[in-house]
Amino acid sequence: MSIRTANRSDAPRLRSLVSDLSKFYLRDPDAPIPTWLASSHSEAEFLGRLSSNDYYNYVYELDGEVVAYISIKRPGHLYHLFVVESHQGQGIARLLWEHAAKLLDNCTYTVRSSLNAIPVYRRFGFVESASAGEKEGVLYQPMELRQSVR
Fold first, then answer.
1. Where does the N-acetyltransferase domain lie (predicted)?
2. Considering the domain boundaries, does residue 48 fall inside one?
3. At 70, which CATH number?
4. 48: which of 16, 70, 71, 95 is 20 to 30 A away, CA to CA?
């Protein structure tokens, strides 16, 4: 197992990983992903985020396969945190989160959590910061983590 900076060659795998888990954030898991969200899941968009200085991107590899991904948009918005379904519940999300957070110099983080991931973010120290929302069938819970200055 290893955590490394994601690179442009990871884009197809990351696009697939995020798209495959869309059922966890849709009101209707069988509904198509809304156009605005599907466009953010395109390979071109992943390439843009991987190339941008505005994002920190890391992957978790197990036996040479990318099984998890985290992307944080500066200064501290947790944009993506996904773990392949077969590897969920093994602490991989926490390892990625702790790796990324220790490298960043930020004391407030935000996330729009899928509803099923709320317990994971609570364990990281996040709290709900507003009412749950929905946009075209995509359900989310705004959350925030304030850390003391190191």
1. 1-144
2. yes
3. 3.40.630.30
4. 95
